[in-house]
Each structure stands twice: as structure tokens, then as C-alpha cells.
Write a structure and sequence with these properties.
The complex is a heterodimer of chains A (312) and B (460). Chain A is mainly α and 312 residues long. Chain A has a domain of 181 residues: Orthogonal Bundle (MetI-like fold), CATH 1.10.3720.10. Chain A is globular and about 75 Å long. Chain A starts with a helix and ends with a helix. The relative contact order of chain A is 0.12. Chain B contains 21 helices and 13 strands. In chain B, the strands form three sheets. In chain B, strands 1, 2, 3, 4, 7, 8, 9, 10 and 13 form a nine-stranded mixed sheet that branches. About 5% of the residues of chain B have low confidence. Classes of the chains: A mainly alpha (312), B alpha+beta (460).
């Protein structure tokens, strides 16, 4: 112990004084990160690169001897496919309906949960439950609720004499789209609510107090204080929910199978269909890259719009 | 000695691994040779060693029966251990695509006539002639549609697990209450009877059909309806589409469905999202009168406790001029992976296939008979109809002569090529658009024909 103290007081020993240079530090840092990078590369980078390779080659599983380079031929196939226009339209409709609905629902719930009332703590936990359920389970629940023949919703409506015959929730193309949006809001809304609630909690109480002293009503407070200060969490939720909605697959798979008449067949559904139904890995990979590229453009657009808004 | 008894009991009970058993027996002072001999005497050596391991993949139907069959096979073939996995029917194709592409070990699996071309072209499964030639000797005893459904480019790829037909089923109680004595012989007659039943308030939608876009059975129901009509063909001998010709059987079928759903309102719109099990449940509840289902579902509907109308579900020939219907075969297929395994493994697989789908000592294997007797599954063998046990079992829920007649009227689906799955997916949506009135019958059929031609050209 005395030796240690002495060494400390006398400064570093000669060996310790030879501090590693920046090169060594960098090597040490990279070596430390290497295991993680390898894992990321194995599970993220490699699949992406391999998918890129597949998207540029003929990869039709029923033609196992032919894997020639086709350039952007698979991308051209996707652009000329029977499903692209309809599925992109369906996806846009779904995103435009579900994302605002999720955000409004999330905001209203967050505002409610931000109030002090008995049982608020339990409610804050309970409200997350739909989000905690796997989307497949949500899909099954909603499929049973909305079943045309023996779903509980039709049963209740009939018992209340609101309708006399079952409403074809999932067999009518328009209703099936709405049903899918409803299920999406039910599943995703709670997470949006929790994100926004965290944002609300971060707004200083003094700000509200000052506004009230100045005579601001609830609408003025909401419009001029709450909303502007929630901009960051709102953008986060907007980006996240747009991505989630644009690549929604589980709910479609379970609730409608893309039907009726492809009304709910979103573009992600066809990425799956290309690979698993048409066994065309080349086209499926090309479509997946196109979806990713489109999402990137949308997200950059969101960020740019926000920056313009901030600079105004 | 007491310790030794305890150890053997633990081994037999599966509470001790073979390695632990040997270590602890040696610890008691016995030689390792003695330990191994003791283990063999306990019967654990042959059972769990499973020196030959076969991977067997099925869809999730009758899983407990399959497991019991495996147990019985293993008890008579102690050197073989079956590694069994099952997946949901509606996801089975996609799961197997992922499995084959990922080269997950799979030796024997269920397959179906509508995937055969795709799986064989992808070289995921192999013809029986490559090492399993004994299994090809039963061809002459199969119904024609069964043989066609397991044959690709002249080679036989499987042995039947079961082979059934799509059958027209009706609720006799509903007909009696409506004062109808005989089931409909034509589609027009079906409309009249359904209107009668509807007008008497017996069923709001007397017809429910399995037309879910996600159910592979939907195309089979539609093809059954086409086959039952005069000139009920989809393609000519060179696989050129004939279904889009003016007045074709396919056009008449679509027109009938449109009318039934949108004008006469005798067909439940829920048909467009109804898969097999929901159709069975809805029929069992008495909500509908007429449907088209796989024959074995008549057994399901009529079994005691299935619902208030158990025993009332009858089968009639498919309405239409020809009464033809679709017959299909689900079969045991041998994977390409198995052909690269050692000869003793292939021999074990051959024994397994004989036990599960063929004959043992010249008579039908207990598994073949069991599926028919216990589950009412149709079979591919003509001579199995001579089995009194089978006839007796079938007569408990149906009419054996009617069932056999339907098999004789059955035809394999048309267009079974390696690009059929692509066309099938496209067609299911086009048909629904036509049913809903989003597009005309002719426009839907023309789109289906164009799709077929482009696929055919792309694969030529």
C-alpha cells in the first residue's frame, strides 16, 4: 500500500508514463467494439448485402440452375408487376388513415393520463397492454371480433337491434380497410400515448402556470404551449408510426390475407408473396429495397419539413 | 445392487441420460462394457440411441394420431428415431419454402398436388424411382386423379397420405323444413331451393362457400364448380387458356356467384373471407344450408356433438351437367436431402413410407386404414373400398357408394405447372373482384388468361 501511495505521489512509473498514442487508442477501441460489430455485421449487414446481391440476380427457386446477373431486371419486373400500383395505393391509404389516427388517439390518451386522478397509475400501465401483445395475437383477436358470421361485434349490434343482419366487416373491401386501420390504432395507439405522455411530463409546470396567470384558456395553452413543446416526441411518433404502418404485415396476414379482392394487400404483403408464394427471391429482394428506399425518402421529408418549421 | 436397480429405473423412466447412466454404473464398480450391456438390456440402448434419425414434417392435422403412429413404427423399428415437426396448414407451403431454402434437415414431408410441380422443379423433392422403387408398384390401384396428382414429368413423387374430393354438402333438415325432397341437380336448381329456404326464414344466406383469398382451397372450390358444368375445362391440351372464351363454364360459374351474392342474396358475403374451419363451424351451427367442402368434413359435421344438426349433413353429386368435381391428393414426399444420406437411412425411410402410406406384408398398413376409419379421410386406393371395416366406418357418417362415385367423378386440377402457384395467387384476387362486381366477368377472365400466358411464356 505504501508503494502504491509512493508511486502515485511520485507520478507514473516509466512504464506507465509511456502512454499509448492515438493510434493505439483507436486500435484498442476498435478491438473492444469488434465483437459487437461482428454480431451486427452477421445479423444486419450480411443479410442486407446478400439481399442486394439477390435483387440483382435471377433467383427463382423453381429454376435452381440459373442464377445469372440481371442488373436491375428484377426492379423492372416489380415496376411492371400486376400488383404494384394497387398495393402502393392501398399502402398509402392505410398509412394516411392509420398514422394520423394513431397520433390523435395517442395524444388524447396522453392528455388524459397526464391528469391527476385516482387509478391513473394503474391506467398508465394498463393502456400499454394492447401494444404489449404480439401483432399476430392482436390480429387473431380482431379477426374473431369482426367475424361476419359469429363475431362478437355483430352479435352485440344485433342484440341491441342496431342492425338486423350481420355487417360484413372483413368481406366488404371498404370495411375491411377500415377494420385494419382500427386494429392498427388499437395496437399502436398505446405506445404513441406513452411516448407523448413522457413528452408532456417534460414540459415545466411553471410554463403552464405563467400562461394561466396571463389569462390563457385551455385551448390557447394547448395550441401555444403543449403542441410546440411536444414537437420532438410528435415527430418521433410520426416517423415511427409511418414506418410501422408502411411495413405492416402481421395484421394483414392474420386478419384478411390481403383480401377481399386485394383491398388490404399492402406492398409489404407482396414482398412476402414474391418470396414465399412466387418463390422469386430476386423480385422479393428488389421490392424490399424499393420499400426501404421509399421509407427513407419519406423520413427525410419529415425531417426537412420539421427543420423548415423550426427555422421559421 | 439396490443402487443398480435405482439407476436402471431412472434410465427407463427417462430421468437419467445414457451418459450419466454409464458414468454412475462405472462408479459402482462395473466395467463400461457391462454398463452398456445393462443399458441395452433395459431397452434404452435401441430406443433412444436412434442410430438412424429421420426428419418428418407434416401440417397440423391429427397430430396426436401421427405421434401415435410414429410411436408404433418406432416400437417395431427400434433402430429408427423419427424427429417429427408440424406446421399450420395455411402456412405450410411458405414454411416449407423457407425450410428447403435454408436447407433445414428434412427427409420426408407432406406435400400436395398443387405444389408438386414447384417443389419438383426446385429439386426439393425427388421421384420415388430414385431409390424407393417398391413404392411405385401401387400405381394401378390408385384412382386416376390420385396418380396424376403425384406425377410430374412422367415420374411418381409420392405415396398417398390421403386423397379426397370436394363434395357438395347440404343440411337435410333445412331441406325438409322447406319441403324440398331432393338436393339440387343443377346450379339453377340450387338457386331456386336456396331462395325457397331463405323465404321461409330457415337460413338468411343458405349458401356459404370457402372463398377466402388466403385459403389454398378456394381455387379448388372454384375449379370444382367449373368442372361440374358442361365443357368444364380451363385449358386445352397444350395448356392454352379456354376459360376466357365467351360463354365458358368459368364465366357461367362467376356469373352464378355474382348473382347469388349480390342479387339473389343467397350466398353469404362472408364467403370471401371464409376458410375451411370457419365454414365447418358455420355449417355445424345451422346458419347455412349448402356448401362445398372436402369430403372428410362430412364426417366432422356428422359426428356426435358437432352441433344441433349432427347426422343431418348429406352429400350429393356436384350440381351441374357433368357432376365432375376436383379430386386432390396429399402425399408423403421424399426430399432431395434424403437421397444424399447413407443407404441404411434410405432403407429406413422406405420402411417408414411403407408403414405410413403403403402396404405391410401385402395388406394395407394400419396407418392407411386408421386415417380412413378414425378420421374419415378419403384414400387414393380403389381396392380399399373393398375393406369392410372401411365401408362400415364411412357408412356411419356418409354414403360409401356416394363417396366412391364422387371419387370416380373427380378430376385433378387443371394447370398444375410450376407456375401454377403464381397464377393461383393472382387468380384468387381477380375472382373476388369479379364476385364483388369491381370488374366484369369477362375482364377478370381475360386478366387471368393474360397472366397465364405471360407466366407460360416466361417459363418456356
Amino acid at each position: 500500500m505504501a508503494n502504491v501511495t509512493a508511486a502515485t505521489e511520485a507520478g507514473p512509473t516509466p512504464a506507465l508514463r509511456r502512454r499509448p498514442g492515438p493510434g493505439r487508442e483507436a486500435i484498442y477501441a476498435y478491438l473492444t467494439l469488434l465483437p459487437v460489430l461482428l454480431v451486427v455485421a452477421a445479423f444486419s449487414l450480411y443479410p442486407i448485402l446478400y439481399a442486394a446481391y439477390l435483387s440483382l440476380h435471377k433467383e427463382l427457386l423453381t429454376d435452381p440452375g440459373d442464377h445469372h446477373f440481371v442488373g436491375f431486371g428484377n426492379y423492372a419486373d416489380v415496376f411492371h408487376s400486376f400488383y404494384l400500383v394497387d398495393s402502393v395505393t392501398s399502402t398509402l391509404v392505410f398509412v394516411l388513415m392509420s398514422v394520423p389516427a394513431v397520433m390523435v388517439f395517442g395524444l388524447l390518451v396522453a392528455l388524459l393520463l397526464n391528469q391527476a386522478f385516482a387509478g391513473a397509475g394503474i391506467l398508465r400501465v394498463a393502456v400499454l397492454l394492447p401494444w404489449a401483445l404480439p401483432p399476430v395475437v392482436s390480429g387473431i383477436i380482431w379477426r374473431w371480433i369482426l367475424n361476419d358470421d359469429y363475431g362478437v361485434l355483430n352479435s352485440i349490434l344485433r342484440q341491441l337491434s342496431i342492425v338486423h343482419y350481420a355487417i360484413p366487416w372483413l368481406s366488404n373491401p371498404q370495411l375491411a380497410r377500415v377494420a385494419l386501420v382500427f386494429a392498427q390504432v388499437w395496437h399502436e395507439g398505446p405506445l404513441a400515448a406513452i411516448f407523448l405522455l413522457a413528452g408532456l411530463r417534460a414540459i415545466p409546470a411553471e410554463t403552464y402556470g405563467a400562461a394561466r396567470v396571463d389569462g390563457a384558456g385551455w385551448w390557447a395553452i394547448f395550441r401555444h404551449i403543449t403542441l410546440p413543446l411536444l414537437r420532438a416526441p410528435l415527430l418521433l411518433v410520426l416517423i415511427y408510426e409511418t414506418i410501422v404502418a408502411a411495413v405492416t404485415f402481421d395484421l394483414v396476414y392474420i386478419m384478411t390475407g390481403g383480401g377481399p379482392a386485394n383491398a388490404t394487400a399492402l406492398v409489404s404483403w407482396f414482398a412476402y408473396t414474391e418470396v414465399f408464394k412466387f418463390v422469386n427471391l430476386g423480385n422479393g429482394s428488389a421490392l424490399a429495397f424499393l420499400i426501404a428506399a421509399a421509407l427513407l425518402v419519406i423520413i427525410l421529408g419529415y425531417l426537412r419539413a420539421l427543420r423548415v418549421e423550426s427555422n421559421r | 445392487m439396490k443402487d443398480l436397480e435405482n439407476l436402471t429405473a431412472e434410465l427407463a423412466g427417462g430421468r437419467l441420460s445414457r451418459r450419466e447412466f454409464v458414468q454412475r454404473v462405472v462408479g459402482l464398480g462395473l466395467s463400461s462394457t457391462a454398463a452398456f450391456a445393462l443399458m441395452e438390456a433395459c431397452g434404452q440402448g435401441s430406443q433412444s440411441s436412434g442410430s438412424i434419425q429421420l426428419s418428418f414434417v407434416t401440417w397440423s392435422y391429427g397430430v396426436s394420431t401421427i405421434q401415435d403412429n410414429i410411436k408404433k413404427f418406432q416400437s417395431s423399428h427400434k433402430n429408427v428415431q423419427i424427429q417429427f415437426q408440424d406446421f399450420a396448414w395455411t402456412n405450410y407451403h411458405d414454411t416449407m419454402v423457407a425450410r428447403f431454402t435454408g436447407k433445414t434437415p428434412t427427409d420426408i414431408c407432406y406435400s400436395s398436388d398443387h405444389w408438386l410441380s414447384e417443389w419438383a422443379a426446385a429439386r426439393w423433392i425427388t421421384p420415388l424411382s430414385s431409390g424407393f422403387s417398391d413404392l411405385t408398384s401401387y400405381k394401378s390401384d390408385y384412382f386416376p386423379y390420385v396418380l396424376q396428382g403425384m406425377t410430374y414429368q412422367g415420374k411418381l413423387y409420392g405415396i398417398p397420405y390421403y386423397a379426397d374430393t370436394w363434395a357438395f354438402l347440404y343440411n337435410q333438415d333445412h331441406l325438409q323444413r322447406a319441403g324440398i325432397s331432393t338436393p339440387p341437380q343443377t346450379w339453377e336448381e340450387l338457386t331456386q331451393q336456396a331462395l325457397e329456404i331463405k323465404s321461409k326464414g330457415i337460413a338468411n344466406y343458405p349458401v356459404l362457400l370457402l372463398f377466402s383469398q388466403s385459403d389454398p382451397g378456394s381455387i379448388e372450390v372454384w375449379e370444382s364448380m367449373v368442372f361440374s358444368r358442361q365443357d368444364g375445362h380451363l385449358f386445352d391440351d397444350n395448356l392454352n387458356p379456354v376459360f376466357n372464351r365467351a360463354g365458358s363454364a368459368a364465366a357461367r360459374v362467376i356469373d352464378w356467384i355474382r348473382d347469388a351474392m349480390n342479387n339473389a342474396r343467397i350466398m353469404d358475403p362472408a364467403s370471401l373471407t371464409s376458410e375451411e374451419i370457419p365454414v365447418v363451424k358455420a355449417m355445424a351451427s345451422g346458419a347455412h344450408t349448402f356448401t362445398i367442402l372436402e369430403t372428410y368434413n362430412q364426417a366432422e359435421l356428422n359426428k356426435s356433438g358437432s352441433g344441433p344438426f349432427a347426422g343431418k349433413f348429406k352429400m350429393a353429386p356436384m350440381p351441374g351437367e357433368t357432376h365432375n368435381t376436383v379430386g386432390y391428393v396429399r402425399f408423403y414426399a421424399v426430399t432431395d436431402q434424403l437421397t444424399r444420406r447413407p443407404p441404411d437411412v434410405q432403407k429406413a425411410a422406405d420402411q417408414f413410407l411403407q408403414y405410413f402410406g403403403g402396404k405391410v406384408n401385402g395388406t394395407f398398413s394400419p396407418v392407411v386404414v386408421r386415417w380412413a376409419v378414425e378420421n374419415g379421410l378419403g384414400f387414393g386406393w380403389k381396392s380399399l373400398w373393398d375393406d369392410q371395416q372401411v365401408r362400415t366406418a364411412f357408412s356411419q357418417w356418409g354414403d360409401p357408394d356416394m363417396l366412391r362415385r364422387n371419387q370416380e367423378l373427380a378430376r385433378i386440377k387443371e394447370g398444375l405447372t410450376k407456375y401454377f402457384p403464381d397464377w393461383d395467387v393472382f387468380t384468387r384476387a381477380e375472382l373476388q373482384k369479379a364476385y364483388l362486381g369491381q370488374t366484369s366477368t369477362q375482364a377478370a377472365l381475360d386478366a387471368m388468361a393474360e397472366k397465364w400466358k405471360s407466366l407460360k411464356q416466361g417459363n418456356s
